Amino acid sequence: MNAGEIQRSLPKCPACGNTPEFALKEDQFGLNRGGIKCPYDHYRAHLDSPIGSREKAIKKLAPMWTEMVRKIKEGEAE
User: Fold this and answer.
1) Cβ(51)–Cβ(60) below 8 Å
2) Cα distance between residue 27 and residue 40, in whole Å
3) Which of 17, 51, 57, 61 falls between 20 and 30 A from 26, CA-CA?
4) How far is the C-alpha of 22 from the C-alpha of 56, rounded, in Å?
């Protein structure tokens, strides 16, 4: 799966129903930092540390977003 397919397969933002966006930047050392967020900043999930490639970052962030949305829908989130 490429990044676009992964993004389309993720659950929508529980607040507005929009598809989440990956917000990643490569730093001067070539490491990726950032997270995944609702386009209107309702919810977001961040990487806890820099990751070596964009693909690895996306593969780590996708399950974080899915779990966060599940918890929100089940009323477990803050």
Assistant:
1) yes
2) 24
3) 17
4) 12
In this structure, the chain runs to a length of 78
* Residues 54, 24: Cα–Cα separation, whole Å: 8
- Name the token pair of 71: 């918890």
Task: Provide φ and ψ at 68, rounded to 5°.
Answer: -60, -45
Reported as a single tens digit per residue, the pLDDT across 13-71 is: 999 999 999 999 999 999 999 999 999 999 999 999 999 999 999 999 999 999 999 99
Residue pair 62/10 in contact by the 8 Å Cβ criterion: yes
Residue pointed to by tokens 């386009």 = 39
Side-chain half-sphere exposure of 22, counting CA atoms within 13 A: 25
